[in-house]
């Protein structure tokens, strides 16, 4: 019978290491919102580790092409590894096929990449946003093993419980006291909303702060990145 007393965690010859834990949550919050002719993908820059802040300026987004952006929260080492894999596959496809990689194809690629690692998954929580073939903005939200959904607005990361209800209420008009018709948001209105929800979340979530990188995708200008400062404490 297995006996824990016979297992020395500091003995390299042990058959099993009870303290093996390859994952850590470095926090971060990512938001994506699609509009009539634009898409916004935003990601915070603070990297947390317990109650420490090793760095305040990490990049949690990857620009796959001029119409698609990926943003990731969770373990930062897995974030970097995942972005390298997805970015490389997109570049290979575009060079071989000589045509741009579409939003739906990027969503399928990300889902497959996450799912094939499901038994030892990337500890990441992803949002993917961009313009479809008609120039309309859509976003996808994914869990750690590749289950995704196509929506108009989504949030992942440590502040998801704080931000997602606001987005549902304001954008999707859910959980309203009275039924209201869904309105079209202009690009500037959407940017203001994204900045407001991150500012609010930074007051309650210790892993959300310092700054947020906001990627705006439009047909005319491609991907434009803006850094919006948040609280440093």
Structure description:
This protein is α+β, with helices and mostly antiparallel strands. It has one domain (26-229): 4-Layer Sandwich (Glutamine Phosphoribosylpyrophosphate, subunit 1, domain 1). The protein has 4 helices and 12 strands; from the N terminus they run E-E-E-E-E-E-H-H-E-E-E-E-H-H-E-E. The chain has helices at residues 76-97, 103-115, 160-170, 187-201, and strands at 29-34, 38-44, 47-49, 52-55, 61-65, 68-74, 124-131, 137-142, 148-151, 153-157, 211-218, 222-229. Helix 1 packs across helix 2 (103-115) and helix 3 (160-170) packs antiparallel against helix 4. The protein is globular. It is found in: Nucleus. It comes from Galdieria yellowstonensis.
- How many β-strand stretches? 12
Q: What is the subunit organization of this protein?
A: single chain
What amount of the residues lies in strands?
A: 25-35%
Number of DSSP helical runs? 4
CATH class identity: Alpha Beta
Gyration radius, rounded: 19 Å
Shape field: globular
User: Under the CATH scheme, which architecture would be assigned?
Assistant: 4-Layer Sandwich
The total domain count is 1
Mean pLDDT: 92
Structural class: alpha+beta
Return the CATH topology.
Glutamine Phosphoribosylpyrophosphate, subunit 1, domain 1
CATH homology superfamily name: Aminohydrolase, N-terminal nucleophile (Ntn) domain
Order of H and E elements: EEEEEEHHEEEEHHEE
N-C termini distance:
51 Å
Arrangement of strands in the largest sheet: 10-1-2-11-12
